[in-house]
Each structure stands twice: as structure tokens, then as C-alpha cells.
Amino acid sequence: MRTGITAGRVGPFDSVVLESDALRAVVLPALGGRVWELMDKVRGRQWIWNRGVDQLREQPVGANYDEVWAGGWEELFPNDAPGPFEGRELPDHGEWWARRWDVSGLAGDAGPMLRLTASMTVVKASCTKEFRLLDDGATLDVRYAVRSEEPQPFHFLFKQHLPIQLASDCLLQLPGGRARCVDPSFGTNVTDPAEFAWPHAPANGRLIDLRRIPAGSSRQQEFLYLRDLPQPWCGVDDPGCGASLRMRFDASHLPYLWLFLSYGGWRGHYTAVLEPCSNCPKDLAEAARLGQSARLAPGEEFATRVAVRLSPLLPNPLDAPHNEKLPSVASGEAR
Q1: 58-333 is classed in which CATH architecture?
Q2: Residue ranges per domain, the chain?
Q3: CB 298, CB 150: distance < 8 Å
Q4: Which tens digit of pLDDT belongs to each residue from 169-182?
Q5: pTM, 2 dp
């Protein structure tokens, strides 16, 4: 399969494009190294939700994330919820997403590869993000490393933030797991704080199937934590396009999955945000108290990996779990 890597532009910002016959990924180094587009070229399906080029801006660390969110696949570090913690004032959704990243490596002979680097200052850390197209040409592999430059240990959160562009016949797919709402006052249907088995949630005296995505006109919204997934992946199916997306993640470093689901309800946005995460809950102090937070000692490195594969429509995993053929992502492979 032919592959390549080229320079481009998205509005006023430089981009790097990794491309094969099956997939096209557009990365914006100046804007947190986010992936702005992820195109399934075979089925003509662009998977990443964004608000359009006219919404793209460089933002300062500490900006109100919800007010300026333009979309694209981002990551969060060292926190989600802002506030004081371990002697620091943590900015809204951390600083990773707002940093300008440097292109420190490009390669094409052995397949497209893009390496980005940045230095964090809220907690002192050197960070690397490396994109590759795997041999099948339909999988974007992303490897991360965070090395502490702090003199003392610190707790932190590392989280994926992949918003999916939806159609009303899309299905939200997971292999199972235990779910609960993040905030009973936020959800439209899932307001009981008790855990339940994915995908059937108790709602107003009945069970609803959370795989089924309602139309944007429904103005619904949900925010969920999940744990104990039988396999470490999540994804969305689009039967109308005959297409599936699957994100495989490293369960040893990202043991939790958060789902932020706005079906027209939150600020009118229509997207499902897939968020494999190191921590639960989002409050760092509470996660650390529960022993459910990532932590780095001086000089120590946190390394993890995710792989997103685009494919023809896959079988329902709860009906045919052994048909989910996904790339292996093990923590030992993260570097």
C-alpha cells in the first residue's frame, strides 16, 4: 500500500499530513499537536468532529476550554478539572492542548512517521508524541512519553479526547464494562449514580440502550465513567457509510474510559468524545486519595500508546466479540 507524509495548511496553521491509500490524517503541531481530520478514504468518511477552520485559534494556557473548544483529537495533561493541587494552580483541561509543539522528526522511507516534542511548565516535564501509519495503512498509531523534570513526585492525569463526527444512525460500541454517570445533574437519561453494565442504563423506570445515538434534535447529553472493560477499546459504527472506527488503548496505563456524549444538548454540539484515561474521577485530589491517579517520580517516564483503525462496518461486538480484529497495544510497546 502506498504511504506518504507531506506538509500542508489548515487556515493560517501549518499541518503535517500522513496518508495512505486507505487513510488521511491531518496534524496541527501549533495547536497542541491535535489531529484535525481523520479521513477513511475508501468509504469517504471523515471521523473527527470539529467546528470548522474559522474557529481555530492559538489559545493561552489557562483559557476556558469549553468556551474556545474548536474540536479535533487532543490529549489532556496534567489535569482535567482546574484548581489548586499539590502546590500548583492547574489550568482548565491542563496545558498539553494549548502548547505549541515542535516537529522534531519526519520519516517516510519505512512508512510515514511524525515526532512532536514540547516542554510543559505547570508541572515540569518533557513530552513526546509520535504518529505512525501501521502496515495495513488503515491504522494511525500514536505513542506518547512524558518524562518528569520535577524534583518531587507528582500526581497527574493523562487522557485522550477524541470527538467523533456523528450521524443519527451511528452506534457507540464498547466490549462491555461497568458504567456510572459523572454527575447526576448533567445527564438527560443517566441520572442514577449507581453503576450499571454497559450498554443498558436505568432511566426513568426503564432500560435504555446507550449504543444507540439519538438525533441532534433530541438535545440530549450524558457524561459517563467506565471501568473493567473486557478488552481495551472503544469505537463508533456508521451503518450509513458502512464504516467503523476503533480506538485500541493501553489498559495498563489507561484503565478507565470516559464518554462525553452531546447529542445536541451541550452547547448544541453533536458529538461523542472517546476518552481513555489514566484516572478516575476527574478531580485529581479525589483520584489520588482513591489510588486511581497516575504518578511520576523525579526522572521517571510515563509511556503509553493508542491505535485508531478505520475499517468496513464491523459486527456488533456484544453479539460477536471474537470478530473484533484490532491491533495489539501493550504497555511494553509504548517506546
Answers
A1: Distorted Sandwich (2.70)
A2: 58-333
A3: yes
A4: 999 999 999 999 99
A5: 0.95
